[in-house]
Amino acid sequence: MTTRPTTIAGVGLALRPPRAEDADALGQLVGDVDRSHDVVAGWVRRWERDGFGSWVVAVEDEPVGFVGVRPREDDIALTVRSTPAVAADGRARAALRLAVADAIEWLPDVPLRLRVAEDDPTTRAVAESSGLVHVPEDDHEARGTRWQVLESPYVRTFTTLPPRARRSLVDLWVRVNDAGGAVGFVAGAPREDVEAEVERREDGLASGHLRGVGLMTPAGDLVGAAFLRTPTTPLQAHIRSVESVMVDPQRRGASLGRHLMAGVHRAARDEGVEILTLDYRDGVGLGQFYAKVGYTEVGRQPGVIRVAPGDDRDSVLLWRRLAETPAPDQTGAQEEPERR
Ligand SMILES: CC(C)(COP(=O)(O)OP(=O)(O)OC[C@H]1O[C@@H](n2cnc3c(N)ncnc32)[C@H](O)[C@@H]1OP(=O)(O)O)[C@@H](O)C(=O)NCCC(=O)NCCS
């Protein structure tokens, strides 16, 4: 049986559920120690009731911040607060990224929204680097403050590609290739070649061997895609291979890859899948990315990918058990030269 993780390990921090004794530290953070006991007691109750809720950002188990997670009628409201030191060294951003990916993978499938005071560019930058996008039509004024609303990307699976979606996928794939992405082509590959590959994928979608996973902006634009392939032998009905993981090259490093993989894991788990495998082309830092989302290297075929004459790369086989709770960022210690 798969259980949702209740602690998420990051680099130099962890997200864990709140405890009553966190109240003083969290109260000092927001400058309201009196009220914080009630607030934290409410958080603890919500975790007990729903099995999820606001996270405490902890360093060596001591609270240094929180990521508020509050389900509302039609969305989940996020907030992020941390000590200045944790905000300054990027760990507040890391905490929000982990919380958003966790929500995409496990929480009710509703928009995740975070509101930021107009005069708070620091929090807005943290939110944007965690993949959230400003949705200006949701901006509003409340209690004398102008608020901007940012929303997370969302994940949709697909088994057909209507013409507009097919065009968006081909556009994305071509841009990813041209930016040096390792998704079956080299930079400058003709659009027609990508179109032909997408057509083959459509055959796979139609026959049920493939399932597509798309990552969309709040406005519905495709910014990431991946495929889950079902092996042909019934002996492997419990596994899928993950293929063609790609995000908009203009938005790399903004956590979209992490969120896309969270959606891939959710989609696979929904089908009862227990194990995922994946091949990647060595030499572009992908090992570090996949280690951060829970994969372990289990094999390597030296030199089988010829990117150009004299530039042969290894094909690396990765594996992840979905039923287990990985400690994602702890595995990120496997170093690999970055050639992004
Ligand atoms: C691989 C890819 C999907 C990652 O997406 P992304 O949005 O840039 O990655 P994220 O911002 O979610 O990164 C998640 C973590 O992995 C790390 N990471 C991502 N790409 C990395 C790289 N090339 N080298 C080292 N670390 C990397 C990030 O630093 C981040 O760590 P942090 O959260 O601790 O800061 C994206 O770079 C891509 O589309 N590449 C081209 C296509 C491709 O080669 N796909 C692989 C097919 S096997």
UniProtKB/TrEMBL annotation:
The keyword rRNA-binding belongs to this UniProt entry's keyword annotation: no
InterPro entries: Acyl_CoA_acyltransferase, Bact_Acetyltransf, GNAT_dom
Keywords, ordered alphabetically: Acyltransferase, Transferase
Coiled coil regions in record: none
GO molecular function: acyltransferase activity, transferring groups other than amino-acyl groups
Residue span(s) of domain N-acetyltransferase: 13-156, 156-323
Designated name of the protein: GNAT family N-acetyltransferase
Organism: Janibacter melonis
Lineage, opening ranks: Bacteria, Bacillati, Actinomycetota, Actinomycetes, Micrococcales
